[in-house]
Amino acid sequence: MSNKEISQDVLERIQKEGIQPKPKWEFLLREWVIWVLAAVCVLVGGIAVSVILTLLVTDGLGLAFFQAPSKGLILAAMPYVWLVLLVSFLLVAEYNIRHTKRGYRYRWASVFVGVVLLSIPLGLIFFKIGWGERVERASQRMPFYERLAEQRENIWEHPEGGLIRGEVSDWSAELRVIHLQDSAGKEWTVLYKKDVMTPRHWIPSKGSFIKVLGEQTADLEFQARAVLPWNFDPLLPFGRPRIPPPIAP
Amino acid sequence: MTEPGRSEPTNEELVAQTLKDRDVYSVLIHRFERPLLRYIKRLTNVDEMGAEDILQEVFIKAYVNLRGFDPAQKFSSWIYRIARNEVISQFRKRDRRPEGHTYELGEDVINRLRDDMDLSKDIDRAFLQEAMADALSKMDAKYREVLVLKYLEEKDYSEISDILQKPEGTIATLLHRAKKQLRESANLLSIKEAL
């Protein structure tokens, strides 16, 4: 086949089969859909970051990890589901961005770092406005996730591992002691020192549920290193627990 | 015919004109049929007829997707990419991998390779020609295709990046490894010949 024949053949085929160039909007739509999907994935990544922060900061998992004598329990309760979701959505976002018109020009690692850097500030904002808490609670409607949440909560019923929870039945700021009733109805005496860690602006009240980090010193006696509310209000200012004045009466 | 004093229309201008008048497409076909046919044959071991069939599909696909062409890149890179994808797609249909053809390397190609790879000037040119062609046809497809684009098609890094849809940094790495593999094969063959 000569060169002339090739061009003739191509033009004849175009005419015979009524082949037309695809409209511009199809290409624009494809590009737009890819970018929107990438944006949605980054957004979901941000939500995953906010839930992870909720569990680590407001639920005390992070503090528990650094303060509890036994790390195994807390490691098992880490929010792996959200970590897997976060990485998966960011990888999908990265895949989408690299399939945009000019996305192939960037190395996958740079694109991935880019989407991570976008999702972290988004996650901080969502965490600050309480979305992490809401999404976490909504997720507990799913049976599979509810079981995981129960397991996570149950780590606070291991006094031998330095973690207890219960309802404040009485307390004295003067004596620096909290009386706590656990889910089995046992009455614990929780002692704390001046430098006990608690969230800012929070005072436990009688009848409230709390979590305590520390170590068991005797039967039904516990020395607290940190005292945390059971349900931390995510709208409260968050940050590293500072050394507060002793829990006021 | 081009008017005196007027330069030939660029490929990108021809794309715009083709969208208004289909017959202009024949000018683009004439410009690219030879280089693309040669490129297709360098990527595969199909016969002349098979390569022409692939080429026809390439031009049809390029025409269908003409409005998706991004004028920020070269038309030649865009149509080379379509050709490469079409070769892969044809071979995927047959559940086979494209195999490299036996290469005929001209003197200019050998000179470029020799200069770029710091090969000994003592190696006999005819022998080097044969050794390089042999090594090229036997090397990994991913290395072979960057070498073909760089030394046989004379594309620069940016064009190769657009054709293979990989970052320029990755192209540089692939090219470095490909040259190393080619140099080792050529040196090995020269030692064998000396023995």
SSE blueprint:
The complex is a heterodimer of chains A (249) and B (195).
Chain A: H1 3-16, H2 24-58, H3 61-67, H4 72-76, H5 80-98, H6 108-128, H7 131-139, H8 143-154, E1 163-172, E2 177-181, E3 187-197, E4 209-218, E5 221-229
Parallel strand pairs in A: 3-5
Antiparallel strand pairs in A: 1-2, 1-4, 2-3, 4-5
Helix pairs in contact in A: 2-5, 2-6, 2-7, 5-6
Chain B: H1 11-20, H2 25-43, H3 48-64, H4 75-93, H5 107-117, H6 125-138, H7 141-152, H8 157-164, H9 168-194
Structural commentary:
Chain A: Keywords: Membrane, Transmembrane, Transmembrane helix. Chain B: Belongs to the sigma-70 factor family. ECF subfamily. Chain B: This is RNA polymerase sigma factor. Chain B: Pfam families: Sigma70_r2 (PF04542), Sigma70_r4_2 (PF08281). The complex is a heterodimer of chains A (249) and B (195). Chain A is of the alpha+beta class. Chain A is 49% helix and 18% strand. In chain A, strands 1-2-3-5-4 form a five-stranded mixed beta barrel. In chain A, β4 and β5 form a beta hairpin. Chain B has two domains: 83 residues, Rna Polymerase Sigma Factor, Chain: A (Orthogonal Bundle); 88 residues, Winged helix-like DNA-binding domain superfamily/Winged helix DNA-binding domain (Arc Repressor Mutant, subunit A), CATH 1.10.10. Chain B is 70% helix and 0% strand. The model of chain B has no long low-confidence stretch (mean pLDDT 84). At the A-B interface, α1 and α2 of A face α2, α3 and α9 of B.
Describe this structure in a few short sentences.
The complex is a heterodimer of chains A (249) and B (195). By secondary structure, chain A is an alpha+beta fold.
Number of helices of chain A: 8
Q: Determine the N-to-C terminus distance of chain A.
A: 98 Å
Count of separate DSSP helical elements of chain B: 9
Overall shape of chain B: it is globular
Helix content of chain B: over 70%
Helix content of chain A: 40-55%
Q: How would a textbook summarize the main sheet of chain A? A: 5 strands, mixed, barrel
Transmembrane segments (chain A): 32-57, 77-97, 109-131
Keywords (chain A): Membrane, Transmembrane, Transmembrane helix
Protein name (chain B): RNA polymerase sigma factor
GO biological process, one term (chain B): DNA-templated transcription initiation
